[in-house]
């Protein structure tokens, strides 16, 4: 081969080496664009492999150069032809499909490695549990925001159905009210103090109590609207109740309010009205305000009564002018004794009272008797026993009714069953009650209270010891000439 041909083949060989370098650089650029910073290690590896290939090629080129030098020095054209042929063979080998395939596989492997090692985006946080956001609390479960009711152990919480914000303080649910702790948000159970008021919440469901509640042996009442624990007085239907102003316990015993006394039933707690039986006594409470009658006259069911300062109630007692002391003309003293009995008072010595009565004749035998003592003189005489006896002579029957309806029994002058002439009203009786136009009369001219009509003289006015008479019957014998009462 001529020198020109050899030079041509060497040029082709060098040109191929340059093309190979361009291909490797291009592959490296593609890898860099694909994998970014993470592919630097791969590029370095590729560069190293490329450098190895170039070194190999340069080594071969060096050998070829040495061969060329040998050819030049030896002047052997055959040797040059041999080298040229070897070079063509090497070029053919490099350009073979196998070498190109290897290069492609290397580039593909590098790309795959770049894709595999590509950094992943950080995973989104999965929310679970409590989260505080701008001073409000929220609850998440598997990234889902809690709304409505949530049970946590023995506690309950509520979250707004729109915003999911944890509820604090008051919440209305239908017709019920609930309260949630202003800090923890826990649903309130049992007792809650709010200012000066107390509330109670069902220990299971948590709804606010608005009715009667029994706690141990005590009872409480919570307002049907506000739910506040009741203190002091409460009206329930026709009844009244009282609740301790400090702890709210329903009162079930005696209660003093100012100068007045009340009684609250020991079982039901309702305020006592009317009659109450105590130990060996009776008490009476106003039907409207429940106040116990004290040091006062009153009328109940048409009967006259008096309540002492301690509330003990007395009614007029029947006293006979025949027993235990027989005093046929002593009706005025026996009648005054009945007036005094309404206050629980007594004439200490009935015999002496009869014997000293400033009246004509003998009260025991009737010798010299003409008429009973005038009402004014009688009042003066009995003041030695009671200053509460007053003279109301001249009063109309209507006035007498007014006294009786206010609880004051009335002594009046009329006739007895022994009367036959009906000139002077020589007999004293006591009206102890009035109802529907009728008068309840005690007549002392009998031995016992249960003695019937016809057992004392047999006359017109022998009506019995304890008798209800009509207005007309009273008017037939009372003319205002004598009337006495007690105040």
UniProtKB/TrEMBL annotation:
<feature type="compositionally biased region" description="Low complexity">
    <location>
        <begin position="37"/>
        <end position="47"/>
    </location>
</feature>
<dbReference type="InterPro" id="IPR039564">
    <property type="entry name" value="Peptidase_C39-like"/>
</dbReference>
<feature type="region of interest" description="Disordered">
    <location>
        <begin position="37"/>
        <end position="94"/>
    </location>
</feature>
<protein>
    <recommendedName>
        <fullName>Peptidase C39-like domain-containing protein</fullName>
    </recommendedName>
</protein>
<feature type="compositionally biased region" description="Low complexity">
    <location>
        <begin position="78"/>
        <end position="94"/>
    </location>
</feature>
<dbReference type="Pfam" id="PF01473">
    <property type="entry name" value="Choline_bind_1"/>
</dbReference>
<feature type="domain" description="Peptidase C39-like">
    <location>
        <begin position="317"/>
        <end position="444"/>
    </location>
</feature>
<dbReference type="Pfam" id="PF19127">
    <property type="entry name" value="Choline_bind_3"/>
</dbReference>
<keyword id="KW-0677">Repeat</keyword>
<feature type="compositionally biased region" description="Basic and acidic residues">
    <location>
        <begin position="48"/>
        <end position="62"/>
    </location>
</feature>
<dbReference type="Pfam" id="PF13529">
    <property type="entry name" value="Peptidase_C39_2"/>
</dbReference>
<dbReference type="InterPro" id="IPR018337">
    <property type="entry name" value="Cell_wall/Cho-bd_repeat"/>
</dbReference>
<feature type="compositionally biased region" description="Polar residues">
    <location>
        <begin position="63"/>
        <end position="77"/>
    </location>
</feature>
């Amino acid at each position: 081969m001529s020198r020109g041909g050899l030079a041509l083949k060497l040029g082709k060989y060098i040109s191929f080496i340059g093309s190979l370098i361009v291909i490797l650089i291009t592959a490296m650029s593609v890898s860099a664009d694909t994998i970014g910073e993470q592919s630097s290690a791969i590029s370095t590896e590729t560069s190293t492999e490329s450098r190895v290939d170039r070194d190999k090629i340069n080594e071969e080129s060096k050998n070829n150069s040495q061969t060329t030098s040998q050819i030049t020095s030896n002047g052997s054209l055959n040797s040059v032809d041999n080298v040229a042929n070897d070079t063509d063979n090497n070029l053919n080998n490099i350009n073979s499909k196998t070498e190109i395939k290897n290069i492609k596989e290397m580039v593909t492997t590098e790309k795959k490695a770049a894709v595999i090692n590509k950094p992943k985006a950080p995973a989104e946080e999965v929310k679970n549990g409590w989260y505080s956001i701008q001073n409000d609390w929220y609850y998440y479960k598997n990234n889902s925001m809690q709304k409505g009711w949530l049970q946590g152990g023995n506690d309950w919480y509520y979250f707004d159905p729109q915003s999911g914000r944890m509820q604090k303080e008051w919440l209305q649910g239908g017709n019920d009210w609930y309260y949630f702790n202003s800090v923890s948000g826990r649903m309130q159970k049992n007792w809650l103090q709010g200012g000066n008021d107390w509330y109670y919440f069902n220990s299971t469901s948590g709804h606010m109590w608005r009715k009667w509640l029994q706690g141990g042996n005590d009872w409480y009442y919570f307002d049907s609207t506000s739910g506040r624990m009741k203190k002091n007085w409460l009206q329930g239907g026709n009844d009244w109740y009282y609740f301790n102003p400090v702890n709210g316990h329903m009162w079930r015993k005696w209660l003093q309010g100012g100068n007045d006394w009340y009684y609250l039933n020991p079982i039901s707690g309702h305020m006592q009205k009317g009659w109450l039986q105590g130990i060996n006594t009776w008490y009476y409470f106003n039907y409207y305000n429940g106040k116990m009658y004290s040091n006062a006259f009153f009328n109940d069911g048409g009967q006259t009564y008096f309540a002492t300062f301690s509330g003990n109630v007395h009614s007029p007692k029947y006293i006979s002018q025949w027993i235990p002391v027989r005093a046929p003309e002593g009706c005025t003293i026996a009648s005054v004794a009945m007036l005094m009995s309404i206050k629980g008072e007594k004439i200490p010595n009935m015999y002496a009272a009869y014997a000293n009565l400033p009246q004509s004749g003998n009260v025991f035998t009737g010798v010299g008797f003409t008429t009973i003592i005038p009402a004014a003189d009688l009042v003066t005489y009995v003041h030695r026993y009671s200053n509460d006896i007053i003279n109301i002579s001249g009063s109309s029957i209507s006035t007498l009714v007014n006294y009786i309806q206010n609880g004051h029994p009335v002594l009046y002058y009329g006739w007895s069953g022994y009367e036959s002439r009906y000139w002077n009203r020589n007999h004293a009786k006591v009206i102890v009650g009035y109802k529907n136009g009728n008068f309840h009369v005690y007549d002392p001219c009998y031995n016992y209270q249960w003695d019937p009509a016809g057992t004392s003289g047999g006359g017109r006015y022998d009506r019995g010891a304890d008798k209800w008479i009509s207005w007309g019957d009273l008017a037939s014998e009372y003319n205002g000439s004598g009337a006495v009462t007690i105040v």
